[in-house]
Amino acid sequence: MSAASIDGKAFAAGLRARIAERVPTFRKATGRAPGLAVVLVGEDPASAVYVRSKGKQTREAGMESFEHKLPADTDQATLLSLVEQLNMDPAVDGILVQLPLPAHIDADEVLLRIDPDKDVDGFHPVNAGRLATGLPGFVPCTPLGCLMLLEDRLGDLSGLDAVVVGRSNIVGKPMAALLTAKSCTVTVAHSRTHNLPHYLRHADIVVAAVGRPHFVKGEWLKPGATVIDVGINRTENGLTGDVDFDSAASVAGAITPVPGGVGPMTIAVLLRNTLVAAHRREGVALEEGDI
Ligand SMILES: Nc1nc(=O)c2c([nH]1)NC[C@@H]1CN(c3ccc(C(=O)N[C@@H](CCC(=O)O)C(=O)O)cc3)C=[N+]21
């Protein structure tokens, strides 16, 4: 291993501390704490773990956590009316509906019903459009966390070659939009790309978010590349990323581990987006760039 390990866990802890420092000022200005509502439908064990740690970290930052756990057989209308109630609730600044939703639920319709100004996940098409056009809105937490790690490591990203492996609405597409906005030359590759090594050979930045364990091999990388591994694959050997870590670590300049890399950033950015949502909704100023 020659690559530096990018410590997302430590960076996320620092980010959460900076967020927590801003909460008292917001409280003084408004008489209340920022509030995040998290909706979980069903009892997928991984989702339950994530929701629990979101609630815990929300409270530790001094914010209010509203958790709504609904049974797996909840119908569409019931879920939509909960979303509507949260849209109207002045104590709720951010709404997160945990994905994946059960198969009988139309997830696209649920996401469309969330007030875009409370959409701290950045999944509403209005926020996707704002990101694509450079308007202020909410950016999905995982790609924004990846960008923070990249800028912390590399400084100005302008002119760098970036390859995003994966094209989901949640990670790949917004990641490509963010890197484009930072003046990278961006290639979006995915599981069907012919000759992925050809594209990776020149990449200064690689963001792997295809959802396939060990998909990206070290031999394909440009020596010294910065590699961000978004994958969370549960295998019999435990949690592994989308990058073949051992081969990549001998070629890359820096790489995020799994766990301890991107994962903790996702929740820290969720808290950041909630803090931002609260300030925007109340018209209280916040230097967003300083957080
Ligand atoms: N509406 C919605 N928004 C989400 O942001 C969302 C979601 N649905 N559904 C599920 C995914 C997954 N996700 C993670 C959050 C934290 C870690 C995390 O903290 N991971 C740690 C620990 C991993 C572990 O031990 O399980 C790590 O990588 O070090 C991972 C993954 C948010 N998601």
UniProtKB/TrEMBL annotation:
What are the binding positions for NADP(+) in this chain? 166-168, 232
| Known role | Catalyzes the oxidation of 5,10-methylenetetrahydrofolate to 5,10-methenyltetrahydrofolate and then the hydrolysis of 5,10-methenyltetrahydrofolate to 10-formyltetrahydrofolate.
Gene Ontology, cellular component aspect: cytosol
Q: Which organism is it from?
A: Sphingomonas psychrotolerans
Q: Gene that codes for this?
A: folD
Give the catalysed reaction(s), semicolon-separated: (6R)-5,10-methylene-5,6,7,8-tetrahydrofolate + NADP(+) = (6R)-5,10-methenyltetrahydrofolate + NADPH; (6R)-5,10-methenyltetrahydrofolate + H2O = (6R)-10-formyltetrahydrofolate + H(+)
The uppermost taxa in this organism's lineage are: Bacteria, Pseudomonadati, Pseudomonadota, Alphaproteobacteria, Sphingomonadales
Question: Mind telling me what this protein is named?
Answer: Bifunctional protein FolD
Cite the InterPro entries for this sequence: Aminoacid_DH-like_N_sf, NAD(P)-bd_dom_sf, THF_DH/CycHdrlase, THF_DH/CycHdrlase_cat_dom, THF_DH/CycHdrlase_CS, THF_DH/CycHdrlase_NAD-bd_dom
A Gene Ontology annotation in the biological process aspect, one of them, is: L-histidine biosynthetic process
Magnesium in keyword set: no
How it assembles, according to the record, is: Homodimer.
